[in-house]
What we know:
Order of helices and strands: HEEEHEHHEHEHHHHEHEH
Number of domains: 1
CATH topology: Rossmann fold
Largest sheet: 8 strands, mixed
CATH architecture: 3-Layer(aba) Sandwich
Radius of gyration: 19 Å
CATH class: Alpha Beta
Amino acid sequence: MxxxxxxCGLALAWGALxxxxxxxxxxxxxxxGCGSDGRVIAQDAYVxxxxxxxxxxxxxxxxxxxxxxxxxxxxxxxxxxxxxxxxTPWEGRFTLVQWDQRGAGRTxxxxxxxxxxPLSIERMAEDGVELAAQMGRRFGQDRIILMGxxxxxxxxxxxxxxxxxxxxxxxxxxxxxxxAANQADTYRRLKGLAQAAGDAETVGTLxxxxxxxxADPRAFGAIRRVTRRYEANAATPAPATWxxxxxxxxxxxxxxxxxxxxxxxxxxxxxxKGDGIYSRLNLLADDLAFEIPVFLVQGEQDLVTTPAVAExxxxxxxxxxKAYVLVPHTGHDPNVAMLDAQYAILTERILPTIRRAGD
Length: 359
């Protein structure tokens, strides 16, 4: 069992306990792009980003389709092992790019020396911006679509703010906003639910922990286990098939590589004394003006990035267009209803503006 699972259980992530394949010297580097026939089928390669080789997968049917760059959660939980199960229906209208971030998945397996230093959201945002620019060039598009979930939603905001010229729009789901506000609202809502349910054990656990902030790195994992349990009482789960890693990722070596990145990234996120990346996050203190449309898609039953905090951020930001979508029967983790809401925004709000811009 990995250290992260011993310390905290399940991390803040859109993912499940599964594998990303281990890296091998023969793996291709910098081969992502359109073929001579203008078609994209399936490409998996290392791309040089931020001075290291980072793992990228591409799925699609036509290079003329708009590109979506997905920014995964965790920060150590890539979606590449599961993306084919989840997003294949989107491939007819979009080219889908999954990225294993610095410190995660195959990227971490390729560059384990990353563990010798700290992660920062600024460094990772620089990586994301560099990758977005590369993907635009490789697919002949001036701008691409940016999607971030959970941890990836905070990183996505940083990317969108840094280089709006690279993006058509930003879609955030399970939007992280502010360490203090997110943690406090999670604690308050959990305690209220536990008291209403007569759940003396959970109330006792929360009382012993006390309200945030917490210095113990185990606290976040303990809270996440309880949020999953209470979200499961009110939210419709995703199909079990979503979280079965595709064969290339379902090996013991791949699982070990995935867990190594998960451990490192999680500890960077929470810190050994509650002083990790998350403790310094406050998007409300940043510039709240965006130059691109912003769409937030929020699970109504989300107890991690709660609707109250996400909506507060939404109301504060200024953007050329914006929308806040509250999805019933949905918690922090994605499900079919969440994906349907995201797809509706992509096809009804973003695609028409891309076509008009290209006319």
